[in-house]
Amino acid sequence: MAAMDDGARCPCGTGHTYGDCCGPLHRGAARAPTAEALMRSRFSAFAAGETAYLLATWHPRTRPADLGLDPDQRWLRLDVLATGAGGPFDDAGTVEFAAHYRRAGRRGTQRELSRFARVGGAWVYVDGEVSG
């Protein structure tokens, strides 16, 4: 997976450029202010192959030792379906989403209800329930 161009549209679906959206988070220059912003940045990290960012934003209790991404899977679009809490003044939140991808010439969708927590002032992914 190639590095993202800062001028390209960010894969997370906000309509902003990568350099003005998820790029600064991936480079450690900013923190996600909400659980939804972290979810969007993690989707972009999957799309860009940013495994270090994915591991760094995973709760220490549930984080895998390593993460191997499927090089044949291309993440295409993220639809945020619902959020629960996860705001700037919350310590926990949820994000329900549909992540669209293509693998082996076929399109698919992964739906998940993800749980997030604030640890040391930063939002982290805890776990999720995949439904597709």
Automatic annotation (TrEMBL):
<comment type="similarity">
    <text>Belongs to the UPF0225 family.</text>
</comment>
<dbReference type="InterPro" id="IPR023006">
    <property type="entry name" value="YchJ-like"/>
</dbReference>
<dbReference type="InterPro" id="IPR048469">
    <property type="entry name" value="YchJ-like_M"/>
</dbReference>
<dbReference type="InterPro" id="IPR004027">
    <property type="entry name" value="SEC_C_motif"/>
</dbReference>
<feature type="domain" description="YchJ-like middle NTF2-like">
    <location>
        <begin position="34"/>
        <end position="128"/>
    </location>
</feature>
<dbReference type="InterPro" id="IPR032710">
    <property type="entry name" value="NTF2-like_dom_sf"/>
</dbReference>
<dbReference type="Pfam" id="PF17775">
    <property type="entry name" value="YchJ_M-like"/>
</dbReference>
<dbReference type="Pfam" id="PF02810">
    <property type="entry name" value="SEC-C"/>
</dbReference>
<protein>
    <recommendedName>
        <fullName>UPF0225 protein Sya03_37260</fullName>
    </recommendedName>
</protein>
